[in-house]
Amino acid sequence: MEDPASEIPRVIRLLTQSTPSTQRATIEKYFTPSASFTHPFCRTGSFEGSRWLIWCIYRWYKIMSPRIEITIDGIAYDEKNLTLYVNIHQDFRIWVIPFFNAPVSLVTVLRLVRYPSLPPQPSYSTPINPNETANNSLHRSTSSEKPLYFIQSQNDLYQVNEFFKFFSQFGVLSVLLLLWQFAATALCIAGAVIFWPISWVEQNVIGGNREKSIGDAVRG
Are 190 and 196 in contact (CB under 8 A)? Predict the structure, then answer.
């Protein structure tokens, strides 16, 4: 990628909504050979050739849910640290389970690396555009004067309630989690009220987050 923030929506759609050959070509074009993938259900680690595991994960993802509706709600690019944050929501349906639908939201964190040209690529390559050969694509990328950015790691982050949607077709687990979260908030309120003297000591004796403990304050 020459411009990660503007190009990443197309990359994500190619990964999730394209044919098997295009999906594989996309992974080989935009991920480094040692790229890693982390998800609540699986992870690959990072080693030479780990990109192949990422292709297997995406292939199984598409086999389970051939038609995926995905929307990119926002993108933030930390250029200094070469990190993309992509806010996504998708409707994940498993074709073998009638009426199953998991409308989930997640944030995908993509760590990038920058190269002056393409890193070493395997001999296998399938063009993303059927009318474009892999060699032409390689030539065009290496002839560019701009540096190229590649995905070194992908980390899919889900809130717990979003994660539960994969297990509960009618949202039962999500409702139970919601009740638990409200109960935990009530406990926080109770704790803040009951233990207010600790806050008073922190405010008037310790003075905030300093290198001084309550014990030190008591001892003077």
Answer: no
Contacts 24+ apart (CB under 8 A), 10-19: 12/70, 12/72, 12/86, 12/88, 12/108, 13/70, 14/128, 15/58, 16/58, 16/61, 16/62, 16/68, 16/70, 16/90, 17/68, 17/70
- Contact yes or no for 74/98 (Cβ under 8 A): no
| Backbone φ and ψ of 111, nearest 5° | -90, 130
Query: Residue 87: its pLDDT value, please?
Result: 97
Gap between the Cα atoms of 50 and 69, Å rounded: 27
Give residue 95's pLDDT.
Answer: 77
Both tokens of 209, joined, read: 């987050």
The tokens for 4 are: 């990660």
Q: Tell me what pLDDT residue 130 has.
A: 41
Q: With contact defined as beta carbons under 8 Å apart, do 147 and 119 qualify?
A: no
Q: H or E element: which one contains 27?
A: helix 20-30
Among all chains, which residue has been given the structure tokens 């032409």? 136
pTM of the model: 0.75
Give the N- to C-terminal CA distance of the chain in Å, as an integer. 60
